[in-house]
Amino acid sequence: MVAEADLHLHGDNHNHNNHSHGHNDEDSSSRALIFTYGTLKRGFSNHPLLQDLIRTGDASFVGTYRTALTYPLVTGPYRVPFLLNIPGSGHHVRGELYSVSTRGLDRMDELEGTTRAHYERLPIKLIPVATIDDDDDDGKEEENDGGGGDVASRGITCAEAYYAHGNYAGELWKKNEKRGLVCYGEKEARGYVKRKDRPQHLTFLDHIRSFISSPSH
Question: Fewer CB within 10 Å, N or C, the chain?
């Protein structure tokens, strides 16, 4: 997710209040729950955006979650991660859940290029990882049971995630030979190239089209 753009944080971070509530008095009921599965997670290249939002009270960490249904999680050009809106395929994807204000959501939408057909912010159902048995999701190949399994008793959380745009998601799944990841970790991120270090004469969608049309190794 979220790796399509490199962070260009505002230069006034040193003025931000370090308290988690910062200066955002927005009612918690109007905040969105956003599931991050890629470079917005802690330890990855775009996480400074969330750190910035946390400092201003525009975001807070909720916990570690996984998808209730199975979804394909793949990498594309420059090891950019993409969650594909194809429930029933792939794995139960692990990631981090954040509560985000309207202002924070605007910044995340900009990063993800939602108005430029890069990613789509759509609903997703999640389960807290703490409620999952140790042997339930150990990273091994999972049986595809339609993606649901017995999740009713585990407590479903309704959130949103940034999926690869539907204009290219199906082709990206085929390009990855319909093999998905459980989690975007250090190994999967190896070789990731920040946007500023990519060829600047090509757009994000140009990179996608080039990746999809390139010969498979």
Answer: C
